[in-house]
Specification:
The complex is a heterodimer of chains A (about 475) and B (about 350). Helices cover about 70% and strands about 0% of the residues of chain A. Chain A is mostly helical. In chain A, helix 1 runs antiparallel to helix 2, helix 8 packs antiparallel against helix 9 and helix 9 packs across helix 17. Chain B is of the alpha/beta class and about 350 residues long. Chain B has 2 domains: about 40 residues; about 270 residues, SGNH hydrolase (Rossmann fold), CATH 3.40.50. The termini of chain B are far apart. The chains are: A mainly alpha (about 475), B alpha/beta (about 350).
């Protein structure tokens, strides 16, 4: 089910919110209701995959109990390996099987050995990358002794399946919601709900009014990458950069807003990333919950920066490479991750050896330029498409006959430029505290109604594919 | 005036406590949505709901064809079913080949559930069955990417015979369209047409007594050589890219309705001819390169062929012009063939050898 669908906004959400607060006196029933409705939300797309969600939940819950019950380090590690193998195994099968088969076929074909492996057509269960990571964090945190086991299976199932953040994050750790789940409010917290409405409407506008509008520019241009030239290449790149940011940030804001409406506070996922003045700062601002996951569960275990600069650079490369691969099973994602790893290393080298700071504006422009270069790889379906697109943006395919006027005068282009300026100048949603007045209520209501009217053009979120 | 304005500003900026703020947002949103839905329901721009205050801005072919059918002096011996892509199949030409009278009952966005309803309607009205049924099946109509056409449920004479084919999803889809931007703009256009006494697009095309569509402006532009075929083709490309980008398999539900239609006819000694409808070569090329059209089309052809073999129907794939020696220049747009093409399809579907068979009867 999509947040931007009639079934969600007209049926699912009103029922959930009413029942959630009506059942406030019975915490277990309430959690059971949340789990059931979250499974319904997830299974709306393809119910069979709820079994996968259930399997992951059951395994990690009992692994968690196992880890907690034993005092032996070796046994804890054994339990943890069960969780790692099951979650990564599931992810590997559904997400990477086809990619590996294709890559091996490609390699064998190159040395004239044909394509002996049958490439399986496996449907990727939506949100699998997110919930497997969440369940993993629980097992690892328990192993490290950083959290206590979930109070009950229902508590753990509610944590894993909570519908606002189930499909595309933010990646919530058990420690983030542990206390909140045990101290669920019995009366609506209207301050939190009004803040939730603010986040939800802002997120909806980001998605419907901005991301979907600029997608109308990027989509058709990128459908024929071999036709791209200088202006169309740059327009598509700018438009996609805006689409991706507003789409994903919109989803996160809606998730956070919905969380607040049912009394949960989720972590921030975006902090105006296009205002970043360095690549390092960009990764502290973009998909923050993934960045912190990679830092805490991959970079630190690899040694972090404890063994000198060289090791820390190596670790950065590994982490970003795997981060890229997490986004998608394809060479373009691997290259994208590698590119960001190299940029982070260069960023580190620059910081260490050049002591003069870069002016803020130049830093911001340079960072945005390199981030866009990365998005080009990220969006390309294969290396050939990336090649066409890079050639277009770097003068390799000349200028359009009409100097790109037909694109520049389009609504999509205007909205792209306006949203870019908006990104640079406006405060972050988290730092903006709207004044609760009749005027604000009317503005937010009007924006929400406009967005709902646009649900007729169904458009899934970009991050659902990861 | 100034004081009133100042009062309004003060009212709008006066702080609200969080509970009142939430209540205010909820009230305004719900009121606006109810208002929009009521407005769209009353104006009913696509003829989907039972309100008939204004003329719909799109052709309501189901009601029109039922009216035309009921005006026929005697029931036709053959029926042509399908979507708008089959509306140029001429009963007169079919009669010249088979000796039997025909009526073109193709309706906009005709899907298998419509075919079943129309055949049941024929049985109910005439207490019999046609002798020949010709059905043009669109590949998209055999998928779940397109919902039941709401105009079917707005036509009680057909809908009463098709209720078992509509799902909860279709009903909700029809309800949710009351809140759509597209419907709202169409309702506003409808009101504007009324105020400006402007003729709606319905009058640009009409059905002749035998159910064949007649394009008024387009035909005269074609005759004058001023018709903008490219824009018409672009429109189809955008529409079909959207449809086929969302699907990768055919619908078993819709296939079952088609099977039921064919079996019902065969049990009552009606010869059924099925064919898959044609698309312009350039549209096909575009769909094949950007969507899973070719894959879905192959699935649909395989399924219809199997169905035809099992039920004793005759099937021809007319997806490309080559398959019936068609002419790419005889199209209204990317999906609607003109008479020279529909006649060639009829020639291929009912070959000379079969003509004798019907003539003897």
């Amino acid at each position: 089910m999509l947040f931007n669908s009639y079934i969600f906004i007209l049926v699912f959400l009103p029922i959930i919110l009413s029942a959630w607060w009506l059942l406030a006196q019975w915490p277990q029933i309430r959690l059971g209701f949340l789990v059931t409705s979250s499974y319904l939300f997830y299974g709306w797309w393809q119910w069979e995959f709820t079994l996968l969600l259930l399997t992951s939940t059951l395994i990690d819950y009992y692994v968690g109990l196992g880890i907690h019950a034993t005092s032996s380090k070796r046994n804890k590690a054994l339990w943890l390996s069960v969780s790692l193998m099951s979650n990564l195994g599931m992810l590997g099968y559904f997400k990477y099987c086809g990619f590996f088969a294709q890559s091996i076929n490609g390699l064998l074909d190159a040395v004239r050995l044909g394509t002996p492996i049958n490439v399986p057509e496996i449907i990727l269960p939506v949100g699998i990358s997110f919930y497997t990571f969440q369940t993993l964090t629980y097992s690892i945190d328990l192993y490290r002794g950083e959290v206590k086991p979930a109070k009950s299976l229902m508590h753990f199932a509610a944590y894993v399946s909570m519908f606002p953040q189930l499909i595309a994050g933010p990646i919530v750790r058990y420690s983030d919601v542990e206390t909140q789940m045990q101290e669920l409010g019995t009366r609506p917290n209207w301050t939190a709900i009004s803040r939730g409405i603010w986040f939800f409407v802002v997120g909806m506008c980001q998605k419907i009014l901005i991301a979907d509008t600029v997608a109308n520019l990027a989509g058709p241009l990128l459908a024929e990458p071999e036709q791209l030239q200088l202006v169309t290449g740059w327009s598509a790149l700018l438009a996609y950069s805006m689409q991706l940011y507003f789409d994903f940030s919109g989803y996160s804001n809606m998730a956070i807003g919905l969380g607040l409406m049912i009394g949960f506070s989720f972590p921030q996922n975006f902090d105006s990333p296009y205002k970043a003045t360095s690549i390092q700062s960009f990764w502290r601002r973009w998909h923050m919950t993934l960045s912190s996951f990679l830092r805490d569960y991959l970079y630190f275990p690899l040694g972090g920066n404890r063994y000198g600069k060289l090791f820390s650079y190596r670790n950065l490369l590994i982490v970003m490479l795997l981060g890229g691969f997490w986004h998608g099973a394809g060479w373009t994602f691997i290259l994208w991750g590698l590119m960001h790893g190299c940029l982070l290393v260069l960023n580190g080298l620059f910081r260490d050896f050049v002591k003069t700071p870069i002016p803020k504006t130049i830093g911001m422009a340079l960072t945005f330029f390199f981030v866009m270069m990365g998005w080009l790889l990220f969006r390309s379906t294969d290396l050939q498409m990336a090649g066409h697109w890079y050639a277009a943006v770097f003068f390799g395919r000349g200028l359009e006959e009409d100097f790109g006027w037909s694109v520049v005068k389009s609504t999509g282009f205007m909205v792209t430029i306006a949203s870019l300026i908006f990104c640079w100048l406006s405060p972050n949603t988290w730092n903006f505290q709207p004044r609760l007045s009749l005027g604000t209520a009317l503005v937010l209501s009007a924006l929400l109604v406009v967005c709902i009217l646009r649900f007729d053009a169904e458009s899934p979120f970009l991050y659902f594919q990861f | 005036m100034k004081i009133a304005f100042q009062k309004m500003i003060n009212l709008l900026s006066a702080p609200l406590d969080p509970k009142r703020f939430c209540g205010c947002v909820l009230t305004v949103v719900v009121s606006c949505l109810i208002g929009v839905a009521a407005f769209n329901w009353i104006i009913n721009p696509y003829g989907q709901y039972c309100s008939d205050l204004l003329q719909p801005i799109v052709q309501d072919s189901r009601s029109e064809k039922v009216d035309l059918f009921e005006r026929l002096a005697s029931p036709p011996q053959g029926l042509i079913l399908g979507s708008s892509r089959a509306m140029k199949f001429e009963p007169e030409y079919l009669q010249s080949r088979t000796g039997k009278t025909f009526f073109n009952f193709a309706v906009n966005h005709g899907r298998p559930e419509d075919f079943l309803a129309i055949v049941r309607y024929y049985r109910q009205g005439t207490k019999g069955f046609p002798k020949i049924l010709i059905v043009g099946v669109d590949v998209a109509s055999l998928t779940d990417a397109v919902p039941n056409d709401a105009r079917l449920s707005a036509e009680p004479r057909l809908y009463s015979l098709a209720k078992d084919t509509s799902s909860w999803n279709d009903a909700f889809d029809q309800f949710s369209q009351l809140f759509s931007y597209q419907q709202l703009t169409s309702s506003i256009a409808s009101i504007r047409n009324l105020i400006l006494s402007k003729k709606s697009s319905v009058t640009e095309q009409f059905f002749s007594d035998d159910g064949v569509i007649q394009y008024v402006n387009r035909q005269s532009q074609m005759n004058a050589g001023t018709y903008d075929f490219e824009s018409a083709l672009d429109f189809n490309q955008d529409e079909f890219l959207l449809v086929f980008s969302q699907l990768n398999k055919i619908s078993q539900r819709r296939l079952a309705y088609l099977r039921e239609t064919v079996e019902l006819c065969r049990e009552n000694e009606c010869q059924v001819y099925l064919f898959t409808t044609v698309s312009h070569p350039r549209l096909r090329e575009s769909l094949a390169s950007k969507t899973k059209f070719a894959q879905v089309e192959a699935q649909a052809i395989k399924a219809i062929r199997e169905l035809a073999n099992n039920a004793g129907a005759i099937y021809e794939d007319f997806g490309t012009v080559d398959q019936f020696d068609g002419d790419p220049n005889c199209f209204v747009d990317g999906i609607h063939p003109l008479e020279p093409n529909t006649r060639r399809m009829i020639d291929r579907l009912i070959p000379q050898s079969m003509v004798g068979k019907y003539a003897i009867q």
